[in-house]
Amino acid sequence: MTTGQGQLRLAISVDADGKIGGLLFTIENRPAPTSRKELDRRLRALAPQVGFLAAEIPRAGESPQADNAMKHP
């Protein structure tokens, strides 16, 4: 399964009767994206129709600013 952190893997072990004896979940240790382009590439791999908005909450009296990382549909 693909997640925002990377590939999630599941290992299942069974006993002699075929019943589940253990589950092991591991996730790929992927470093954080270093650019908006890399973030966009990863988000599109998860869902082609995804949107991402980064915004800074201003202090009282300041103008809000937003930077939409998705410049194209």
How would you describe this structure to a colleague?
This protein is α+β, with helices and mostly antiparallel strands. 15% of the residues lie in helices and 37% in strands. It folds into 2 domains: 1-30, no CATH class; 32-73, no CATH class. It has a 3-stranded antiparallel β-sheet with strand order 1-2-3, with no helix packed on it. It has a two-stranded antiparallel ribbon with strand order 4-5. Strand 2 (6-14) and strand 3 (20-27) form a beta hairpin.
For this entry, give a set of tags.
single chain; 73 residues; alpha+beta; three-stranded antiparallel beta sheet; two-stranded antiparallel ribbon; 5 strands; disordered C terminus
In short:
By secondary structure, this protein is an alpha+beta fold.
Helices and strands in order, then pairings?
Layout: E1 2-3, E2 6-14, E3 20-27, H1 36-46, E4 53-56, E5 65-68
Antiparallel strand pairs: 1-2, 2-3, 4-5
Structural class by secondary-structure content: alpha+beta
> How many structural domains does the protein architecture include?
2
Order of helices and strands: EEEHEE
Give the helix proportion (percent range): 10-25%
The overall average pLDDT, rounded, is: 76
Distance between the termini: 25 Å
**Which residues sit in consecutive blocks of at least 5 with pLDDT less than 50?**
66-73
Number of helices: 1
> What is the strand tally?
5
* Estimated radius of gyration: 20 Å
| Strand order, largest beta sheet | 1-2-3
Note the beta-strand portion: 35-45%
The biggest sheet, with number of strands, parallel, antiparallel or mixed sense and barrel status, is:
3 strands, antiparallel
Shape: elongated
